[in-house]
Amino acid sequence: MSQRTVISLESIRVACKNCTLSSLCLPMGLAQEDVERLDDIVKRARPLHRGDFLFREGDKFRSLYVVKTGSVKTFAPSQEGGEQVLGFHLPGEIIGLDAIDKDVHACSARILETSAICEIPFARLEDLTANIPSLQHQMYRLLSKEISQDTDMLLLLGKKNAEERLAAFLLSLSQRLHKRGLSPLDFYLSMSRHEIGNYLGLAVETVSRLFTRFQEDGLMQVDRKHIQLLDLPALEALVKGVGQGRDKQQQPG
Amino acid sequence: MSQRTVISLESIRVACKNCTLSSLCLPMGLAQEDVERLDDIVKRARPLHRGDFLFREGDKFRSLYVVKTGSVKTFAPSQEGGEQVLGFHLPGEIIGLDAIDKDVHACSARILETSAICEIPFARLEDLTANIPSLQHQMYRLLSKEISQDTDMLLLLGKKNAEERLAAFLLSLSQRLHKRGLSPLDFYLSMSRHEIGNYLGLAVETVSRLFTRFQEDGLMQVDRKHIQLLDLPALEALVKGVGQGRDKQQQPG
DNA sequence: AAGAAATCTTGACCCAGATCAAGCGGTGAA
DNA sequence: TTCACCGCTTGATCTGGGTCAAGATTTCTT
């Protein structure tokens, strides 16, 4: 089994300080020596594959997980075997923050495409943050950012129609890929139409029709999982609700 | 102006250690001496009235706010002057956590009924948490809980129909009031039908019709803002989707 | 390489809930 | 006390997008 050797070499090479994601991830804004302290508690496993679970709903909460490469979806069970996709997670994004409070995972996380994942035992991280103020601050920011994102999603599900939702989804992906040094205009989807629809509160058929329509309208080129965005400004205009959302009136005090 | 005196007497009496909410709020699980340290940084203003703003979207983030008595709504602007109600906040609940990351409030908070509010300057709280591990832990828990709640709301907006949404809303209020020592079955709504609809992603008319229907079905008694829940089990059954939600199928790996 | 099983697309139809419209209290200002 | 306004209810109608159905592709098995 020479594989053990390969893995251990790998885990040296991929230390946080060498990671291209460090500006997006937990180490953001940390001093070099503090990054090394963080590095000491991070566990890096061999790559996981499509369909593998990072954790399941009901599992005891032990660690946070950070996507290093690849992508992951999180989802919660709804009634009677259905599920609600809660998010798609790209490199640098943290998974599991919602479980700190209850100490049990309320959602499951499943690998979408072959991925490398960093595991961060939470108890050790918490100790570390008590001694590194900038890391504590970073944790507050990450938790807060997660709340903001959920808030954006509430607005999307509460007020936007189908085409606004899909446009918002595409632009969100585009921007997040761009921050990671990838093309914002040309990318592959790692999730199915079904999963996109589930995430956006739409039926698969609606997603499919919208892809077709957006393509007809020259907003994008779709070939199976391969997406090319041709008209960002038009997509942005759609999200802003140029095509009208619901409930434009205020509530008086 | 003898009012100054009254206020300052008041602010002694209402210290966290005497507050009936301390088991729900930030002081939860803290040692007595640590509660006092927390107390030192909490500011208590005179009561605010319906329509007053705690903060507005775009304001610089300085403090977290905790409802002591009364209730508050938070809402984000959607496109073209509309708004999305993000939450209704009862005594013991913390407002403003979503602004830590960006350092600017992305939503507004407005008083629904005469309320007493505790203000906690965040910079000072952050210093304190770095020195009180149990307070740091409590902060992580509170942030995490906020994420879980948003997640529940995503499921509600993504998968539940109108009656499931309203039933879930009523039960959530009922449970939260119960935890605060109030009746879970008999209470007054501090928000309008319009605000409820906005929050749940429904039109006012739908909310109104559902109140009427729930009453006809013997689930509750409605008199204007006065609510009496008559059949909790039936409401719970509704939320669980006995009347069927959407998308019960799984997505294969 | 052939068959089986998903995934995706497209068309036809339908319905939950939005929108439009009208009327009814309740509440507050003068 | 009256009037005006706002919040709420109820009815009538409309529609975005869900559901059902049928193929077309693609991808997994063996």
TrEMBL record, chains A, B:
Q: Which residues form the Cyclic nucleotide-binding domain?
A: 26-100
Which intervals hold domain HTH crp-type?
Answer: 160-233
Keyword Protein biosynthesis listed? The answer is no
Q: Name one GO cellular component term.
A: cytosol
Keywords of the record, alphabetical order, are:
DNA-binding, Transcription, Transcription regulation
Select a single GO molecular function from the record's annotations and give it: DNA binding
* Cited Pfam families: cNMP_binding, HTH_Crp_2
Its recorded name reads: Fumarate/nitrate reduction transcriptional regulator Fnr
Gene (UniProt): fnr
